[in-house]
Specification:
The protein has 302 residues and is of the alpha+beta class. The protein is built from five helices and twelve strands.
């Protein structure tokens, strides 16, 4: 039986993963997921690209939004290069553009906007959804283990390893997990998440972890009305773009509620939105993503 790393080691690994190394004034490299298998997780690339942009932002400026386009799937185990362009630096706002490459080919373009802190007109339109608190919910990892105990022999070994890989982010879903659901239902979902141990007191790192976690459950929301699942081999999907607006500072090692919905799918694409609330019910970030989502064709279909 393999020993499970303790929470502090898992979070230290996440911090290392999301800490980019500066190679020159505007060029960075991103570490790889240890023991990674297959395609690079999109949230990792977004978070590392954001970290590269944050490293070149003017002092006193914080990221308030990012817009990213996925161009190609990245391969785990191969270096990721982040080239940053300082497109604009003003008195109140600044803009940075990052091209992420692997083997000389771009896999993601990201633009991040930064703002110097200031007071302004304030309102909050959204009310935090009324869902069970995280303390009343089972960790998703516990549910995965239970499911794999029942159907593990019918699941490929590589998929089992991915499902059971220890994670530095604890997620707890108040709805039935989309990959377990075979009955069509409304395209909305609610999950709590937080790092499994304290993170450094660095707001830039907390934004990066939120960006990392924002790619966990989003695309799956557009599969809910169709009762189909990637885990059952019924779908083919990939993120096409990803946008985050950071409204207020938040700690990613304290519980955050991720409420997602999908107002539309069609033409092989699914559109998904997310709202992230802190435990006090304040909206801390908004997310939007469109992804490719297609029914997997049977080997025996025409």
């Amino acid at each position: 039986m393999t020993d499970t790393p303790n929470p502090e080691k898992l979070v230290a690994g996440l911090v290392r993963l999301l800490t980019v190394q500066q190679q020159s004034e505007d060029q960075f490299s991103g570490p790889q997921q240890p023991g990674g298998m297959g395609r690079v997780f999109g949230g990792q690339v977004i978070a590392q690209a954001l970290q590269s942009a944050q490293a070149t932002a003017p002092e006193g400026f914080a990221a308030h939004s990012l817009h990213a386009y996925f161009l190609r799937g990245g391969e785990e185990g191969v270096d990721l290069d982040y080239e940053t362009a300082r497109d604009f630096t003003g008195r109140s706002f600044a803009n940075r553009r990052v091209v992420v490459s692997q083997n000389g080919q771009p896999i993601l373009n990201l633009t991040a906007s930064f703002q110097r802190a200031e007071d302004g007109l304030t309102h909050d339109e959204y009310t935090m959804p009324d869902v069970p608190p995280p303390e009343d919910l089972k960790p998703d990892m516990e549910i995965r283990r239970e499911v794999i105990e029942k159907i593990g022999e019918r699941m490929p070994e590589a998929q089992r390893k991915i499902m059971l890989r220890p994670r530095p982010i604890d997620t707890r879903t108040s709805d039935k997990l989309h990959w377990m659901n075979s009955e069509p239902r409304a395209p909305s979902a609610h999950s709590w998440f937080r790092a499994v141990a304290p993170l450094p007191d660095d707001p830039a790192m907390h934004r990066a972890v939120i960006a990392y976690a924002s790619d966990f459950t989003l695309l799956g929301t557009s599969a809910l009305p169709h009762g189909l699942s990637w885990m059952r081999g019924e779908l083919v999907g990939a993120s096409l773009d990803h946008t985050i607006w950071f409204h207020r500072e938040a700690r990613a090692d304290e519980w955050l509620l991720y409420a997602t919905d999908s107002p539309w799918s069609g033409s092989g694409r699914g559109f998904n939105r997310g709202r992230i609330f802190n435990h006090a019910g304040e909206l801390v970030a908004s997310v939007a993503q469109e992804g490719m989502i297609r029914r997997r064709k049977s080997k025996h279909s025409g």
